[in-house]
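debug: dumping io for the single-chain case to check the tokenizer round-trip. Nothing else runs in this session.
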Amino acid sequence: MPKLVTAVVPAAGQGTRLGSNTPKQFLTLGDRPLLAHSLQILASIETIQEIIIAIPDTDQEYCRKEVLQYLSTPKVIRLVPGGARRQDSVRHALDALTNQPDFVLIHDAARPFLTTDMLDRAIQVAIQIGASVVALPMPDTVKYVNGSGMIEHTVNREHLWLAQTPQVFRFDWLLKAHQWAHDQNLDVTDDAALVEQFGFPVSVVPGSSMNLKITRPEDLTLGEIIWKSRHKEHQDTAWSCRTTKQSNTVKT
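debug: decoded output
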């Protein structure tokens, strides 16, 4: 029986580290707002039945007019109030669910370069294991530094991975973890950290260095370079297909 997946996109961050008065999810990347890029890919995945965007009340009308216009999909897309913290936004989205899905997929609003392959792999692994996290092996040497800025020792990076999104979880696992975190007033940086607290298995799915999170001004600059490169590849492919088709119709 096909598994039903609801995608949750926490989009309540203000992006203060970008030094902009515009919330980072609304900054322009290429030809559209940052948030629209990831939503378009999420909407293309057949398994995903519904997309919930957790966003401040004051930004919801702007999101409807300036972001959702780029999506053409029969999927249900709902806006719910975002929270002060990322985990609050996710919890608000979970509370807003009217139909219980089998799995919940969570993706950062500021990661515009996820791919359909990445999403498919994360969902399939979660179906097998119960939970999955897209991540990258730690590429650099890691130093443990004390409060005075002095290195105390070098950390063995062999088993260290950098967590990204998407992250996919069994709905019942994720709901239990968030209810517990709310009751205990815990503050965590990603949803996998909550699920891990209960001893639930979480499998790593290899990600991509291109799946960067736009956090600082230099990230936005790099994002523009990636977008232009991908856009050019798409145009080149489309041009090649057109010219091939035209040459095939030429009679000799």
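debug: round-trip ok. The chain has a mean pLDDT of 89.
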